[in-house]
Amino acid sequence: MVGRAVGGTWNVPEERILPALAVVSVSFLLGGLAGCLMSTFVEGAGQESLRSYLEGFLVTAQAGGGNLPALAAQLWDILRWPVLALLLGFTALGVLGLPVLFAIRGFLLAFSIAAFVRIFGSAGCLLAFLVFGVGGGVSLPVLFVLGVQSLTAARTLASRFLGEGKAPSPYGRAYFLRCGGCAAALCVCILLERFAVPALVSGAAGLVLGG
User: Fold this and answer.
1) What mean pLDDT do residues 47-52 have?
2) Nearest Cα to Cα of residue 16 among 143, 168, 142, 163
C-alpha cells in the first residue's frame, strides 16, 4: 500500500514511512523527557544564573521589541536542524545520526521550555509558547518531514553498503519536491521569527516584568 500526499508528493511505501517516523519520534520524545528531567536538577547557583539569564533576555526583548534581530544568528537558529537532517539523508551514517539529532533537538527544546515554566510559573507557559511555539509550529513539522525521508534514504544507502540488495534510488522527483515545500515553509518561519515573534515577546515580557 502506498501513502500519498496531495499530488503524489509523498509516494513512499508506508512500510518505510512508519518505522522511520517511529524512530525519529521516539528519539525526540526521549530527548524531551531527558531535557525536562535535567531542568529539575538545576538548583542553587545554577538556578539563580538561569533566572538572571532569562530575566536579562526579557529585559532585552522588552526594550528592543521594535528592533529586528541579527539575521545571520536567526538563520543559524532556524536552519541548522533541518539542514543537518537533510544532509544526513545523503549518507548511510544518517541511520545513526538522525536519531541522535532528534534526541538533541528534543532535549534542548524541552529544557528551554521547562526553564521558562520553572522560573516564571504560569506566565512562563505563555513566554515559552511565544519564543518557541510560533516559529516552531512551522519548523518542527518541517524537521520531521525531512527527518523521515532522510532516514528512509539513509536506510537504503546502508542496505546497499551491507550488500542487502539494490533498492531503487530514494532521490526521486518527489524527494526534492518535499525539500522544496519544506524550504518554502522555512521561509514563512523566518518571517514569523523576524517580524512577529519579537513584537509578541516584547509585549509579553512587559506584562511579566511589570507584574
Assistant:
1) 92
2) 168
